[in-house]
Amino acid sequence: MRTRMAAAAMAAVLLVTGCTVSREEPPAAVPPATSSGSPAVPESVRSLTPAPSDAVPDDGVEPGRHEAPEWDEASRQAVVDAAVAAMTAFARPSLDADAWWEGVEPLLTADAAQDYAYVDPANVPASAVTGPAVIVDDTSAYLAHVEVPTDAGAYTLILSREDAGSPWLVSRFTPPEGAS
Fold this sequence. Notes:
Elements: H1 2-20, H2 43-46, H3 73-90, H4 97-104, H5 110-116, E1 134-140, E2 143-150, E3 153-160, E4 169-174
Antiparallel strand pairs: 1-2, 2-3, 3-4
């Protein structure tokens, strides 16, 4: 009995001691921050992974930057052409949904593609473009509102582009009042 009590006491001492003793490691050294606020990369690490020789394009534009668009005659013609092409693809109510979507989807922004993905082309009131498109708002070189006449009335399309080298894409087709 005495041996059992001694063993129990020893177990209790070990249990209590084991719970209270902690062996924390000192925190790892953090490299000093650079002027940008991010940690400095030690030379030994930088030498392990050199940047590829073709990492910086030789087009005069910094990586991540794109050429800003301008409203010149070429931009105006491009947005009008894009609006007519998009409206021509959109105004095809006689097509089945898959064929209609195949023609419309590449002309849309990513958000517009989500918005128009489930449109039933049979519900589009227009079936043809009937005249020349006209820019009705060009306050930004990145965004334009273009009116396109159709057999159901004039639709207003909102088109945008990311930069001077990007295509104009439709973000919204607004039907004429009363068209349904």
